[in-house]
Amino acid sequence: MKEAGCDDESTNGVVVMVEPYSQTEQIQHVIYRILDANLDRAREGLRIIEEWCRFGLNNAQLALECKHLRQEIANWHTPQMRAARDTLGDAGTELSHPQEEQRANIKSLLQANFGRVQEAMRVLEEYGKLTHPNMGKAFKQMRYRVYTLESTLLGYQRHQLLLRSRLYLVTSQSENLLSTVEAALKGGLTLLQYRDKTADDTVRLEQAMKLRQLCHSYGALFIMNDRVDLALAVDADGVHLGQQDMPIAIARQLLGPQRLIGRSTTNSKEMQGAIADGADYIGVGPVYETPTKVGKAATGVEYVSYAAKNCPIPWFAIGGIDPNNINEVIDAGAQRVAVVRSLMEAEQPTLVTQYFLSQLYRVKANA
């Protein structure tokens, strides 16, 4: 490009006039700056995601997909685009937002950077059409790959946390719902199900939103009882279905592959059916009689022992389990338990949570 702002040059005594940038050249220069900035932005965001896939999840496949995307982006980063960079003259370097200054947890960090990458790729897709006939098409396809990567990664994160979760709190109606749940989260709880069979949908929606935010601030999973529509509305991590609720196959179509689906079971036939239908985890019980499941006979520890020998997916013994009988359930083969009253009605939910976890992790350590 010709150097703008010079009136003339002298060459062997001959005065040569130097023309400023043409309007077309100025526009092209701006487009190159936009492409350069967004190519960098996309690669930086992917590198942040890749580091978690590699070191946080130890997942070589996901890390490799991030790396391939970064390399494909780098192939479009031409010398002309790099030469157009003007960091000192970029008005956007001083712009910031309070949400960019902090990250609550890994999930929020990953979501922020996926958003960053996707926005950058949309810019590259549109402005790239003005530069190269195939650039727009290439970044459109890469953007779809990033969407798939996001779903896969968040789904993988959820499944990994499910595998690590030993204690599952199912809520009951309580005036101290939020404070009780937070106390349990402080004690190490990583899996919560919001269950309220009688409240209006407006109340359930409001409570579910608060509980989901609370769970995610502690890095815990939030599951909605029964209602797939409410699970989607509040961006829950999944839904738990009873035997009389929506079929798992339909719930999966609505929720997608990245969210969790649990199923209650009371016998071996229901267990095998849930596994065949694609449940991510199951409840096994009720082990003891409980007012939470009125009219359902206790299965006893025999079903727990059966699950320990035959269930290939995560399962939680549930039903009347408390600090006094948890070791009996553990001795029958349970490594995970779900509780309601023993935590929701506890005077010190944090301490009770810690006790449950100490017993469950002791089993894991000795296994």
TrEMBL record:
GO cellular component, one term: cytoplasm
Region (Unknown): 1-145
Cofactor note: Binds 1 Mg(2+) ion per subunit.
EC category: transferase
Positions with a binding annotation for 4-amino-2-methyl-5-(diphosphooxymethyl)pyrimidine: 193-197, 225, 264, 293
Cofactor requirement: Mg(2+)
Catalytic activity: 4-methyl-5-(2-phosphooxyethyl)-thiazole + 4-amino-2-methyl-5-(diphosphooxymethyl)pyrimidine + H(+) = thiamine phosphate + diphosphate; 2-(2-carboxy-4-methylthiazol-5-yl)ethyl phosphate + 4-amino-2-methyl-5-(diphosphooxymethyl)pyrimidine + 2 H(+) = thiamine phosphate + CO2 + diphosphate; 2-[(2R,5Z)-2-carboxy-4-methylthiazol-5(2H)-ylidene]ethyl phosphate + 4-amino-2-methyl-5-(diphosphooxymethyl)pyrimidine + 2 H(+) = thiamine phosphate + CO2 + diphosphate
Protein's UniProt name: Thiamine-phosphate synthase
InterPro entries associated with the record: Aldolase_TIM, ThiamineP_synth_sf, ThiamineP_synth_TenI, ThiD2, TMP_synthase, TMP_synthase_cyanobac_bac
Keywords, comma-separated and alphabetical: Magnesium, Metal-binding, Thiamine biosynthesis, Transferase
Keyword Transferase: yes
Domain ThiD2: 33-151
